[in-house]
Amino acid sequence: MRQFRNVGAMALGVLTLLGAGGTAHAATVPIDTQVDRLLARMTLAEKVGQMTQLSEGGVVTGPGGTKGLEANIKAGNVGSVLNAVGAERIRKLQEIAVKQSRLKIPMLFGLDVIHGYKTIFPIPLAAACSWDMAAIERSCRVAATEAASDGCNWTFAPMVDIARDPRWGRIAEGAGEDVYLGQQVAQAQVRGFQGPDLKAPTSVVACVKHFAAYGAAQGGRDYNTVDLSRRTMLETYLPPYRAAFAAGARTAMSSFNEYDGVPATGNKWLLDDVLKQKWGFRGFVVSDWESVSEMIPHGAVADRKEAALLAANAGLQMEMQSGCYLQNLAGLVKAGKVSQAQVDDAVRRILRVKYEIGLFADPYRACDLARRGRTIMNKANLDAARDVSRRSIVLLKNDKDVLPLAAGKTVALVGPLADDRENMLGTWHCQADGKQCKSLADGLKERNIKVVTAKGCDIRGTDKSGFDAAVKAAKQADVVVAVLGEAHDMSGEASSRTNLNLPGVQRDLLMALKAAGKPIVLVAFNGRPLTLDWEQENLNAIVEAWHLGTQAGPAVADVLYGDYNPAGKLVATFPRTVGQIPLFYDHMNTGRPYNKDDHYTSQYMDAPNEPLYPFGYGLSYTKFQYSPLKLSTTALKPGGKLTVEVTIKNVGARDGEEVAQLYIRDLVGSVNRPVKQLKGFCKISIKKGEARHIKFQLTPRDLAFYRADLSYGAEAGQFKVWVGPSSATGSEGAFRLTSNVAVPD
Ligand code: GLC
To answer: What is the CATH class of 624-742?
Structure first.
């Protein structure tokens, strides 16, 4: 469990000051001193301007738009612009701020660079399935270098919302259901976006979103109410945000949802008590799109002035788009309802980030056309995209090793996504052009595979007129590769679904294809867990390929033909039916845990309790065998360490990679504890016939939780520990913690 390191200790900044005449002279002056000097020169209106972000029409990511953007910039009313696209346009807007406004304060340019800018990588949910932090960091690094070469200096990412309901379309944007893995992924993403040096021309400022617990929307319906216990918020939902800040993220975005009855955008417990007082966050928080004014429909405030009042006093530093601050904040300060100190703190935080990234020294750093030409979609970036894509693929079924396919076999390539490029992009695909994606058909063509094609049906709709041609194609082939799934706009924001089957008549197509009597391999391109129960029962192989981005086709072909042995593991549980949701592995045991021989136990009459595929699950083309565990002690003392050792042998016919996962269970606690919790993992390559010996280390800190009194610490007692290939199985051991241990929170 990584602890939050106070990023408050800002390094001395070597600053190049732009003198009045634009001449530059270097000065080693602490950033905070520069901030205070500039702040002292600002009028109240200019301060409110820094707290205002307005959208340029470049891309539309919410309702409404902005009128008079350039006039507002010139008047000093805009501290940041979002959705402006392209170095040329951004340079023009920046020039207005830097040359025409009174104080010439450069602006931040924000954009949703979520999983790529032009070279699109797997959606975050897919990349997380690689369990490969270096790969995840690399995908964000490439995204940052491309975006930062085309004007952008701030990305609205990473989204680190824990999500346990696949009906929620935005599960696509995060790292799934687990708090431990979510922390590791969040840190890798921040490192990737911000890079080692925020002043580097290849870096963008990260924005940790959506603070907080947006993924807990009731019913999986986007923007819906979040109602969580304080303990669940502290234990499950907050840690990934905290981890992202510990990795140095400089900004956060407040979420649309309420928490504990108060919208996050005006929630002082979240924005001030937790984020600033407890965690020591020294960056700034921007609202989500119009989430300040949306506190009116929430019923938290009566009008825009009250919205500005609630948000400002809660500790929201910048308002995205709705203009409540611009219209009301100066008046609220003059009326004494918002303190000058509160406004000054907000502006200080914003200016500090601008100084930290060197924006005053070089406002046009990101507007470098030559660098853009060298960077955008260059070969290294495309190769990286293919590599991360392969690592993100999860093999869910492979009966009788029907995969990998032999190159000489004829393939019936069917399904609406078989030769589709646009939908490979997935949600939030930024500035990508779908035509530059490679489909699976492209991937097979590159390999000169003999293919008979038939679309069969659309992604949506009821038209089955293409079935016969698909069945005919199947009869002419050795194997059917059915490429099905969701369109890119069926997950992401405002894309919740209540039916998680393959959309339209895609399952019907599979049923028709079965009649052809050939092996069927399903390749699924989708943005969320789907209820593939019929498919699991009736198909020979299932490859979960998510939405992989620009290099989707070649990456999937690499897996289908065995050039890459899949090693992905699910980071979100796949339910059998929507009726089982919410369904996640680290659930409580209840007082009547399921017992097949006892009617009065926790169960359904019409479905099993178990998921279709559990968290951490994923197959390989080879087989791994886990030895019994070896524990360094069965009595862990305060201040002590427990080493858990296991040997994993590759007993199959291929080299492969395995993600060994370590789980614990605290058998008794002052509050009930989950039946399993991920506390470590290790991704290793093991050659066929070889074995690898791995060691995990546990300390009392890893066993800590928010106890009955909400204090943080570990409690004496018995624990179980497992190491295995998923949350559902593994070699088991036991130990005890000899006494209670308070752990700094
Ligand atoms: C959207 C999303 C948020 C995004 C923002 C700016 O509504 O909720 O994730 O960063 O607006 O586009």
So the answer is: mainly beta
Q: Give the number of C-alpha atoms closer than 13 A to the C-alpha of residue 169, restricted to the C-beta side.
A: 19
Q: Do domains 371-580 and 624-742 have the same CATH topology?
A: no
**Domain-wise residue ranges, the chain:** 371-580, 624-742
Token digits of residue 131 = 């369990």
Among left, alpha and beta (phi > 0; psi -120 to 50; other), residue 438 is beta
pLDDT at 7 over 80: no
Residues 416-459 have pLDDT tens digits of 999 999 999 999 998 999 999 999 999 999 999 999 999 999 99
| pLDDT at position 20 over 50 | no
Phi/psi at 722 (nearest 5 deg)?
-130, 150
- 412 and 434 Cβ atoms separated by less than 8 Å: no
Find out whether the beta carbon of 344 lies less than 6 Å from any atom of ligand 1.
no
Is residue 66 very low, low, confident or very high in pLDDT (cuts 50, 70, 90)? low
Q: How far is 162 from 184, CA to CA, in rounded Å? A: 13
The 10s digit of each residue's pLDDT in 328-337 is 999 999 999 9
Phi and psi (nearest 5°) for 664?
A: -125, 165
Would you state the structure tokens that stand for residue 519, as one six-digit string? 């092996």
To test the ligand 1 pocket, which listed residue (80, 85, 156) has its Cβ within 8 A of the most ligand atoms? 156
Pairing mode, strands 262-263 and 479-485: unpaired
| CB proximity list for 43: less than 8 A, separation 6 or greater | none
- Contact between 231 and 671 (Cβ < 8 Å): yes
Rg, the chain, Cα only: 26
Residue 493 C-alpha to ligand 1 middle, in angstroms?
A: 8
Cα 232 to Cα 704: distance, rounded to the nearest angstrom: 14
First and final C-alpha spacing in the chain:
10
Q: Is the CB of 112 under 6 A from ligand 1?
A: yes
Tokens representing residue 643 in the block: 């080493």
Q: What is the CATH number of domain 371-580?
A: 3.40.50.1700
Cα–Cα distance for residue pair 171/582, rounded to 1 Å: 13
Compute φ and ψ for 703, nearest 5 degrees.
-100, 0
DSSP class of residue 277? I
Return the active site residues: 288
Q: If DSSP states are collapsed to H, E and C, what string results for 253-286?
A: EECCCEECCEEHHHCHHHHHHHHHHHCCCCCEEE
Q: How far apart are CA 392 and CA 172, in angstroms?
A: 13
Task: Identify each DSSP E strand in 498-636 by its residue range.
Answer: 520-525, 541-544, 624-626, 630-631, 635-636
Distance (Å) from CA 310 to ligand 1 centroid? 21
pLDDT (0 to 100) of residue 550: 98
Q: Is the pLDDT of residue 662 over 90?
A: yes
pLDDT value at 14 more than 80: no
For residue 223 and ligand 1, the question of a CB distance below 6 A is answered with: no
Verify cis geometry, omega within 30 degrees of 0, for the bond prior to 346.
no
In this predicted structure, what is the pLDDT of residue 15?
39
Query: Sorting pLDDT into bands at 50, 70 and 90, what band is 28?
Result: confident
- Structure tokens belonging to residue 244: 């992202």
681's enclosing H/E stretch is strand 677-686
Please tell me the residue having the least CA distance from ligand 1 atom 11: 289
pLDDT of 344 above 80? yes
Ligand 1 pocket: which of 81, 112, 161, 207 to mutate (most atoms within 8 A of CB) = 112
Calculate the CA 642 to chain-centre distance. 31
- Which residues, at least 6 apart from 400, have a Cβ–Cβ distance to it below 8 Å? 540
Helix (H, G, I), strand (E, B), or coil: what is residue 480?
A: strand
What tens digit of pLDDT does each residue of 543-593 get?
A: 999 999 999 999 999 999 999 999 999 999 999 999 999 999 999 999 999
